[in-house]
Design goal:
403 residues, alpha/beta, Rossmann fold, Dihydrodipicolinate Reductase, domain 2, Alpha-Beta Plaits, 3 domains, six-stranded parallel sheet, 27% strand, binds L-homoserine, methionine biosynthesis, oxidoreductase, NADP, Homoserine dehydrogenase, HDH_cat
Length: 403
Amino acid sequence: MAKIALMGYGVVGSGLIELIDNNKSKIDNLEVSSILVRCLSKHEGKKYSEYLTDNVEEFFSQESDIVVEVMGSLHPAYEYVKRALQAKKHVVTANKDLIAEYGGELLSLAKESGVTLKFEASVGGGIPILKPLIESLEGNSIKSIRGILNGTTNYILTKMYNENVDYEEALKEAQALGFAEANPDSDVLGYDAARKLAILSTIAYKNRISWKNINIEGINNLERQDFIYAKELGYRIKLIAESIMEGDQVYASVRPALVKEGSILSTINNEVNGVVFHGDAVGEVSFTGKGAGMLPTGSAVFGDVLDIIRGRKETSENYLNEILVNRYIDSEVGVLIRIKTEEKKNVIKKLRLEFPDLQLVGEKRDELALYMNTLGETKIHDALERLKLEGNIISFKKLLRAV
Ligand code: HSE
């Protein structure tokens, strides 16, 4: 019999409990021994309420084999997970903030204690991503990761694309439907996706990628007009989390990018997540599905719990060596730029000298929309900064094409 102690009884915790109950006929050696919550009255009448406690000492005094952390946020989750590992309990967590920040340290601690730390649900919710990456793709050297790792922003961008609405309107609807948090900053500013990309990249490239070194840009500055120009060129706009291994460096970014209509990532819409790995042996493999929600995330947590019970304890290594992260891509890339200027003709003339394939996508009285290919992102960035310095342009905004 394996005893499960649960920290947190919100959406994901409730999903796990439901799956434990639904699978009783198949898996009867699982028992809930304690559930730690902040506020007892909030959970009255729920299943297993006899195991509820708001006292952390009481929680840790109960017998358990596996501690499941689904409380979210960094603190006190970090202190509690550490305590559980030090007490030689296996730990399953769905907490991407925790793993992105302290994953290496906690994996080391788990190793020292001879227990397992698993965190499948921390990336892509219900989609099995980490297990295939750690186990099934072991024979590959991973060249790149490209994905849509945040459901809230994908919902907002899908709505902006399909319905030609403003960002604020799409965000309000995402909040009303419960996808976006009341404070949606970590989603819309790209931090949530960056933490997930850091976890995936660390495992894929076998070196620590700190999420803080990733080039992060949110979706909050996107406008209706950006979608009109992108559509004109045959692209969607998605919040793309991508990392590419080149030599001993990794390029990593999370930012809105142009995605060719018809490509795999262009078909990942609404709150769905998707990720494409490129391995040297396997080529491209893609995973899609629900990146959040009670049962999908509960499903990933349940899978980790079962693996531990069944003795399948493979998990990520603790990669502590931090690798260099490039913020700008240096290979050839397409870019859509919107330029505010009173000198449209002059700007086109000057830019065409450096970017002969420059294409006019649209224009307004004081605005140009141009598309061009550039060898390295800094080349176009520097050219635009120069024009700004010389007084030819007032401001610019760019959207890169996802490779
Ligand atoms: N806020 C996250 C999302 C939840 O929208 O994808 C899952 O991590």
